[in-house]
Design a protein that fits this description.
The protein is α/β, with parallel strands linked by helices and 465 residues long. 36% of the residues lie in helices and 16% in strands.
Amino acid sequence: MITLDAPAGVHHLPIEAIRPSRFSISLYGDPDREIDGDGLLDSIRRGGILVPLVAAPEADGFELLSGHRRLACARRLGLETVPCEVRAVPKGSGRRRAILDYNRQRRKTFSQLMREADALESLLGPEARRRRSANLRGSGVEAGSDAGADGRNSDGRGGRTDETIARAIGLGGKDLYRQARAVWKAAASGDARARSGLAQLDAGTKSVHAAYKDLRRRARLTTGFRPTPYDVWAFRRDPSYGVPHPGSIPAGIVSHTLHYFTAPGALVVDPMAGGGTTLDVCEAMGRRCLAYDLDPVRPEIRQLDVRHGFPLEARECDLVFCDPPYHTMLAGPYAAFGVEPEPLTGWIAFLNTLAAHAFAALRPGGHVALLLANQTEKDLPAGVGYIDHGFLGYGALTGAGFVPVRRISCPMDGAYLPQHVQRARRDGRLLGQVRDLLVMRKPLGENEILPGGPAQLSGSPPASS
């Protein structure tokens, strides 16, 4: 029984009589997960619920329209009743509109905003269809429609649905809303890059425009792709491809490798896929891709320790693209049991093993591409100025039986701080920016001989003091 012991319209309702709205939870998530750490629980514990909840009466109780987090706090604190304004709001679209209005000033993530937009699309869609139908007939207003002949609603709002929704959710104009909608739609379709952008949007570390630009830039590999004709590929990392991951490489290196050394439809294998740059570039350029990693970060990347060889599905592939985790050149290992902590002799053994497995997996005439940078800044033996990993990779590949095709310079961005540059100048020391892509081919037959004979690796690296 409801007792009126508060201002008009506000009652103290038993908690068990109030049912949370499924529609609200679908938009904003489980309120029990939001009340920890934001101070609301402590505030209600000290001073009670200061702003009444809002609920609509039903035959067996009340449906909550506003105050889901406050109700969750009351339940957590063991309260028996809560102050609640009771409003007779019809079921269906009326209640959904009311819930959206009550949450208008709520601080929301990007995903919550877009779920609101989805709901508004379903609410405003029938109105938009009626307006379009009336415009096509040229008859002004259809019976029962709230749209005028000028394309505007009866309350004076702009007739364009996307413009109306953009204003309603506070996302700016229709252009920004369309960009947000494109990112949201791509993420919903399972696009890993869009999902990564969505996570950054929710965290507030990326803007809608930046996430949309990431989507749009991908089209450059399918329309208007202009490869450089030189053997120096000075590309920067493009966040449109791959998800954030240590050691991510520029998509331009992968796209040019595919352009020059594969044909459309070719099977590309990346055994150390990291954030999936190769996977995404292959998709954009019409190549098939099998991506593996010791510690996969995306569902499209399968778990594999390449030291044990390639799976059968990768056999007779057209290209193996390898960007291995460089020996001792990381702040921390990519994954447990990786090759990074190995001593130099272990790293050389790994390169030999990788080359042998790639040779076994490729079809005759297929290519391997190995991206390696020189080691110049840390963990160098005493009296050694650098270790030429490109040379080590060259020896491993030719030792496995590959025929050299091209050595391409892919200089790194060189993200050195000004003090690092000044110190290097003062000390007469060179900072490392050299990185090479070694491209080699598996011979077509036993009669194809490597010029100069196969190189043999020794246990000692080439060094320069």
